[in-house]
Specification:
By secondary structure, the chain is an alpha+beta fold. It folds into two domains: 37 residues, no CATH class; 61 residues, no CATH class. It has five helices and four strands. The strands form two sheets. Strands 1-2 form a two-stranded parallel ribbon. It has a two-stranded antiparallel ribbon with strand order 3-4.
Length: 134
């Protein structure tokens, strides 16, 4: 959100999917020690929310390719994993504005485009409705 959508000035960690996992974790640990970061500054907890989606290449370096999801998918993922006491609410608002959505129903339609209805918790619906003052 910070890098791709300039949603906020910084973040405490980087959510990513990376391969080869063990080697990347080891390298991230060395970076953490060298720069005084938390050991989990690079984490793959986001993998629990992944579903097939369209993505684009943000950076393509010889030994590193960085992909980013389209904004509607990012909105769906942020909404379904929403932690009210975190930066997620601000991120969701940024994506709602970027996508020019006007109602909670429009947001929930996007969430349902990626996640089956039975996977969407009532808390997600309440969270979205609260953002629209419903």
């Amino acid at each position: 959100m910070a890098l791709v959508y300039d949603a906020r000035p910084n973040t405490n960690d980087v959510d990513a999917i990376f391969k080869p996992s063990a080697q990347i974790r080891e390298a991230a640990g060395r970076v953490a020690i060298a720069h005084g970061l938390d050991m989990d500054w690079l984490n793959d907890a986001v993998k629990g929310f992944l579903v097939p989606h369209k993505q684009r290449v943000l950076f393509d370096f010889p030994n590193l390719k960085i992909y980013v999801p389209e904004p509607d998918y990012m909105l769906a993922m942020k909404a379904i994993s929403a932690r009210v006491d975190s930066l997620d609410a601000g991120d969701v608002k940024v994506l709602i504005n970027l996508l020019k959505l006007k109602t909670a129903g429009e947001v929930l339609d996007i969430v349902e485009k990626y996640y089956p209805r039975e996977r969407i918790k009532p808390a997600t619906q309440f969270f979205i409705e609260e953002l629209f003052g419903q």
